[in-house]
Amino acid sequence: MTLALSRPITTLREGTNQAIAASDLDVKTAIAQETARRWFSRSLSLRSPLDSPVADRPGRPEKPELLPPGMIGKRNLNSVKGRIALLHALAHIELNATDLALDIVARFVTESMPQSFFDGWMQVAFEEAKHFLLVRGRLRDLGADYGDLPAHDGLWQAAHDTRNDLTARLAVVPLILEARGLDVTPSLQAKMRKTGDHETAAVLDIIYHDEKKHVAIGAKWFRFLCHRQKRNPADAFRQLVRANFRGQVKAPFNDMARAEAGLTPSFYRNLSSVNAS
Fold first, then answer.
1. For the segment 215-231, what is each residue's pLDDT rounded down to a tens digit?
2. Domain ranges in the chain?
3. 117, 21 in Cβ contact below 8 A?
């Protein structure tokens, strides 16, 4: 497709800003992935005084209707309708994950961080866009599309609450929100296979594999910042989650997958009864 650019992409921040702001989701994912490719090929500078400002909220199409999280009903995964509802929720999560990864780059590009920090988060953004496209493709296979059902509006709250603190952003987004995916995805994979929906299970396999890497990237840079700040990472994590996360840290945890990603139980075990509101 031909990218609908509001201005040329000459810097990493400009590319990520444009992707975040795009309301056409084909354009958003295309700009995100093209910016990542150009960054990896070292054909973009990091930033310029001429870059657009970071958007407070990402661009979105008119649909889906966004509702408070408690208003989204439960799903019967044994029915096609229920699997469509699950896939729609996953598409919404992956879309927000794309914008969250882009926002880490765009918003914190002025931080004194190694180039490999931005490499990692552009890889995350590229793969989250891939996940959205895979899930949306599976929705279309089932005769539906993203926007057909309501979705909840709580995911971007994490970005807003941590907009001024990179360490807090890393604690909440990859180490809480993404790590939650490691907990719930294996059971969803099993349920899809049990219903005979091996195509959806295959998509979930890709997402699960990539999400381990994303949590690992978050854990790496969270520890890096804690070391720089002379803070104990597990203690800092708990303090930042209590101060910046409005949801509930829910058990059970996939301890093995979390440990593979560098997130040991000392980080999250005594948070599971905390409901920060």
1. 999 999 999 999 999 99
2. 8-155, 157-277
3. no
Cis preceding linkage at 64, omega within 30? yes
Tens digit of pLDDT for each residue in 172-226?
999 999 999 999 999 999 999 999 999 999 999 999 999 999 999 999 999 999 9
HSE toward the beta carbon, residue 229, CA cutoff 13 A: 17
Nearest to 96 by CA among 150, 59, 144, 137: 59
Cα 234–240–245 angle (5° rounding)? 120
SS3 category, 231: coil
Count helices and strands in the chain by DSSP H and E runs: 11, 2
Q: Is the whole-model pTM more than 0.70?
A: yes
Give the span between the Cα atoms of 41 and 15, in whole angstroms. Answer: 14
Report cis status (omega within 30 of 0) of the bond before 174. Answer: no
Three-state DSSP class for 22? coil
CA–CA separation, 41 and 208 (whole Å): 27
